[in-house]
Amino acid sequence: MTRLLFQGVEGESDPTGLRAPSFRPSSGERVGEHELQQSKLSADDKLREECGVVAIHGHPDAARQAYLALYALQHRGQESAGIATADGQHLANIKGMGLVSEIFTDDVLAKLPGQMAIGHTRYSTTGDSALLNAQPIRVDSTKGLIAIAHNGNLVNLGNLRARLEREGAYFQTTSDSEIIVQLIAHSEAATLVDAIADSLGQVEGAFSIVMMTRDRIFAARDPRGFRPLSMGRMKNPGAPDTIVFASESCAFDLLHAEFERDVLPGELVMVTQDGVTSRQYASGVPQASCIFEHVYFARPDSRIFGRWVQESRDQMGRQLARESGVSADVVVPVPDSGVTAALGYAEEAGIPFRFGLIRNHYVGRTFIEPEQRVRDFGVRLKLNPVHNLLEGKRVVLIDDSIIRGTTSRKIVRMVRGAGAAEVHLRISCPPTISPCFYGVDTPSKRELIAANNSIDEIRRFIEADSLAYLSLEGLLASVRDEKKTGYCTACYTGNYPTQWVDVADILPATATI
Ligand code: SF4
After folding, report:
1. What pLDDT, on the 0 to 100 scale, is given for residue 138?
2. How far is CA 101 from the centre of its chain?
3. What is the 3-state secondary structure (H, E, C) of 259-302?
C-alpha cells in the first residue's frame, strides 16, 4: 500500500509574523539530511538524476496536469513524488513513496483542488529515501506560505547556513530547499519576487526551481544553467492560456502544450493571473549546462538546452564510429539508453543494427537496491541476450557509460555467453573520472573505474576484445549548436565550473581493480 503524506489545506500564513524562526516546515513536515557525498547506484550501475520538476498555472484541474507531466518525467526519479496545489486562498500538498501512478490515484488527485500546481519526482541518495524528505516542501515563512520543488544541488550550503544562523535562522533540516526559503525569509527586499531574486543570487550550484504561493508561480534556473527547465503554453479558447514548466519538454507533449522556450540561466519567471513577467537576477556567468543530460539522463524525445536529445545521441554514435571503428557483423545497443547512439554508430559504420539484448521493462523497484548481491541479480533480471542474433558474430556493443565496471563486465560476459565471437565495447562519452556535485548521484572517485585505471586495464577487467570511449572533443562536437551553448564536463575532466566542491572527494584515488 502506498504511504502518503497529506498536508491539509491551510488558508493562513504564520499569524505571528515573527522573523525568527523565519521558517518552519509546515504541518509537521521535516526534511532529512542533505547527503551530497553519499551515493546509491541503481541495479544497472548507472548514474542517477535526482529530480524532475513541473509547474502549472491557470488550469481548472492543475493537479491532474501536474500528474501527467510528472508521469512523463518519471525517468528522472522513481522513489517519491509530490504535488502541491493552490486555488488563490489555500495551499495543499500530497507526497508519497513510489511511482507517480501509484501515488496519485483519482481519489488522491481529488484532494488537490486549484488552478495552480507544482510537482516533483525524486530519486534520493542513500539514507534519505523517506517520505518526509519528498518534495514539494510547503513552508510558512515571514513572506507567506510557499511551496518549493527543486532539481539540483547547492554547493555553498555551509557558508550560507552559518551566516543565516548568525542572523537568527533556526534550521530544522539540512535541505537545499530550506536554505533557499530561509534566504527568502531573511531578505530585506520589500516584495516577494525581489526577495526570491535576492536569495537566488546568493546560492551557488545547480538548481532548477519551481515555487508557488497562494496566487503565483515562480520558475528559475541557476546562473550557469546546469539543469534543464522549459516553459510551455496551452491555448484555452475564450480563456487565458495555461502556462507550464517542466524539467524536460517531453512532459509538454502529454499535456498538448506547446514548447515555448527554455527558462534562461539566471532567469526568474513569475506567472500571475495578469500574465508572465521575467527578470535576469544574474548575468555574466558562463553557461555550464550538464552535458550528461544529453548523453544519458534526458529522454531522446525532449528538447533541452535548445537541442533535441535524439539528435545529440545520434551524433555521438556517428562520431564514435568515426573515432574508433572496428570490423564487426552487428551493432547492439545496451538498452534503453544506448539505443539512439547505437543507431548513429551503425549507420555511420555501415554495420547492421540489431536488438541483441532485450530489456525487461517490468522489473520492479524491489530490485533497485544498493547491495552488490541484489545488483548482481538485477543485471540478469533486466537484460537477456537474443542468442540467434549474437551467435558466431563479431559484436559492437554500445553503452553510454562505465561507472564501476562490474555491470559492463556482466553484460560483456552475457553477450559472449550467447555465442558472440568477439565483443567490442564502445562508450558514447569520455571516461567518467570525477564525481558530480550538481544534482547527479555519483559514487566517490575511488569507486569510478576510469579514475583509477587505464583504458586497457578497464578493457581487461570487463573482458572485452576492445574498448573505446568517445573523445571529449567528439562529445562537444556532437552537442554543438548555433547558440554556442556552454557545457559542464566536470565528470570527464575534473574541471568544476563552481568553486565550492568537496576537495576530499576529488583527491587522487587509489586503484580498485
Ligand atoms: S559533473 Fe557531469 S553529471 Fe555533473 S553537472 Fe557536470 S557534466 Fe553533468
Report:
1. 85
2. 19
3. EEEECCCCEEEEEECCEEEEEECCCCCCCCEEHHHHHHHCCCCC
Q: Return mean pLDDT, the chain.
A: 85
Indicate which atom in ligand 1 lies nearest the CA of residue 291: 7
CB 461 less than 6 A from any atom of ligand 1 = no
Q: Are 148 and 211 in contact (CB under 8 A)?
A: yes
Say yes or no: CB of residue 290 within 6 Å of ligand 1. Answer: yes
| End-to-end C-alpha distance for the chain, whole angstroms | 42
- CB-CB neighbours of 492 under 10 Å: 22
C-alpha cell at 428: 558514447
Active-site choice (51, 250, 290, 429) = 51
Q: Is the CB of 320 under 6 A from ligand 1?
A: no
pLDDT score at 9: 44
Nearest CA to ligand 1 atom 5: 290
Q: Is the pLDDT of residue 93 over 60?
A: yes
Q: Within its chain, how far is the Cα of 75 from the centroid?
A: 8
Q: What is the distance between the alpha carbons of residues 328 and 346, in angstroms, rounded to a whole number?
A: 10
Q: What is the pTM of this model?
A: 0.87
CA atoms within 13 A on the CB side of 464: 27
> And the C-alpha cell for 156?
555553498
What is the per-residue pLDDT for 43? 47
Q: What is the pLDDT of residues 438-455, one digit of tens each?
A: 988 788 898 999 999 999
Give, in order, the Cα–Cα distances in Å from 350 to each of 69, 328, 346, 356, 397.
Answer: 38, 10, 6, 17, 15
- C-beta separation of 94 from 109 below 8 A: no
pLDDT at 134: 81
Say which residue the cell 554556442 belongs to: 484
Task: Give the cell for residue 413.
Answer: 560476459
Please determine, for residue 131, whether its predicted confidence score (pLDDT) is greater than 90.
no
Gap from CA of 289 to ligand 1 centroid (Å): 8
Kindly state the average pLDDT of the residues 497-501: 75
Q: In testing the pocket of ligand 1, which one of 50, 151, 207, 489 has its CB within 8 Å of the most ligand atoms? A: 489
> What is the pLDDT confidence band of residue 272, given thresholds at 50, 70 and 90?
very high
Count of CA atoms in the C-beta half-sphere (13 A) of 421: 7
51 counts as catalytic = yes
- The sign of the torsion formed by the CA atoms of 214, 157, 441, 98 equals negative
Count of other CB atoms within 10 angstroms of residue 261: 12
The 10 Å CB-count burial string (b at 16+, else e) for 392-410 is: ebbbbbbbbbbbbbbbbbb
292 Cβ below 6 A of ligand 1: yes
Question: Of 454, 465, 456, 447, which Cα lies nearest the Cα of 397?
Answer: 465
Between 49 and 345, residue with greater pLDDT: 345
The owner of cell 587505464 is: 454
